[in-house]
Amino acid sequence: MMRHVLQALRANREDGTLSEELVKKLYLAVSMANDCGYCTGVYCTLLGEDAGSEAVVREFQRLVVDGELDGFEGDVVEFAIKITNSPHDVTDEDFEYLRETHGVSDREFVQIVYIVNLISGYNRVTTVFDCEYEDVYHDGPWMRI
After folding, report:
1. Which of 56-60, 91-95, 133-137 has the highest mean predicted lDDT (pLDDT)?
2. Global confidence as pTM
3. Are 118 and 124 in contact (CB under 8 A)?
4. What is the CA radius of gyration of the chain?
């Protein structure tokens, strides 16, 4: 089952137009919002490998928690967290703001919503089975939204 989820994640990343870095940041932000320690650890590690520094990842987490991300990245992450936490509260105005401010396309909206869907499902599986991630970020304080 998880192999299929990973295939869907790969297809979403490869067929989408969002940058790979932003996609990984969305994975992390959604996992943080869902309070999934395993996935937060995995995505911190992946992002840290790309960034070359744990400090860069921790700063991203802090900005997410404090709501201090700005620009395109901040608005997309905020939108993804809203979808994660309260999908019934997403409005046409949310879509229009991203469309008008950043030129977000229908294809990108589908990619963002599908990322939230896939990662949230993966978060629930690893949480229910109490999976533990043992890597550089495992022992650090998890940042929650």
Report:
1. 91-95
2. 0.90
3. no
4. 15
